[in-house]
Amino acid sequence: MSLIAWIQLLLIGAAIGAVLLMLLWWKARRVSFHRLVLLTTFFTFDLILFGAFTRLTDSGLGCPDWPGCYGVSNPLAALTQIREAENLMPTGPVTLSKAWIEMLHRYFAMGVGFLIIIITAWSWIKKSTMGQKIAITSSAILALVCVQGAFGAWTVTLKLQPLIVTIHLMLGLSLLAALTYLSSMSAQLENKQYSFRQVSNPHVKLTTIVLIILIAQIFLGGWVSTNYAVLACDDFPMCHGSWYPAMNFSEGFTFWRELGKTADGTTNATLPKSVTPEALTLEEAAQLIDERAAKGPAKGKGRAAKKPAAKKAAPKKSSAKKA
Ligand code: HEM
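A: This is the predicted complex of the input protein with protoporphyrin IX containing FE.
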């Protein structure tokens, strides 16, 4: 990745942040600290929705490297490589639209990072009037967004390793929660009525327990999604006609899973034993798929015939799908 591409990426993030700031100024003719925090919170919420869209459209590896796309700052500059990959595997992980979705997610994330840098700088410059607590909270949020950026990078470079994607989801939601908390603090600067601190909660213990259960439930939801395990039970409310079907907890909760393995720990039949999934290039993967299509029962039906087969295998699959 060249220095110029790096600078271009940072400028794109700064430009998105600057446009948002201008919109804020245009709407209210003034930019207060509290409004800036609210804007950043709202934009982070949108970014989280866009992250889910990135995942659900299977665009996570739309640009298989980081921080740029094939080493450049935008998919148009990498058109040749993207088209090559798309021709090899038309429904594979890299297509032009997927590359745009992935890069837009990164650009918006940089916009959020830019706004959080301004919040932090502002809180320290005006520490005497705003108070040290706001400055410290803002700095903690800046650290959190940097860690989140790092997990975003690992999401890509570790090829959607389930644990990394789940942590990326949890940290994204934590960032939103932290910004919401900061907006309740900054509301007090403007004597707004909706500060959390003005609401007394007589059930602190109960709320804490519910919060822990909620966090666990979000983690489980993320874990199901990142392991592509959603079709393990294809009926509802029971699972395979039972309230307590046979389950393999130790395999299901193996947190660092070798890519290319199925949920029961065996090697995915698509890959020969000699092939390490992490080292597999796109071209080699395409070749393997072609060889398998030539040998396998789907012979003669072409790639389109693979979809139902993949669906049927879904209950047992883990990260293997992406490897
Ligand atoms: C403020 C920063 C960020 C936030 C709040 C954020 C949030 C999210 C969320 C909530 C998801 C959906 C996760 C899921 O559904 O399980 C997601 C997906 C994703 N994010 Fe981020 N993200 C941020 C920064 C980044 C960065 C900097 C990168 C890459 C350099 C990145 C790469 C990805 C990728 C590749 C996915 C899709 C994962 C998949 O397809 O499985 N994110 N993000």
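The chain has a mean pLDDT of 86. The pocket of protoporphyrin IX containing FE is lined by residues 44, 47-48, 51-52, 54-55, 60, 66, 102, 105-106, 109, 112, 145, 148-149, 152-153, 155-156, 160, 165, 168-169, 172, 175, 222, 225-226 (CB under 6 Å).
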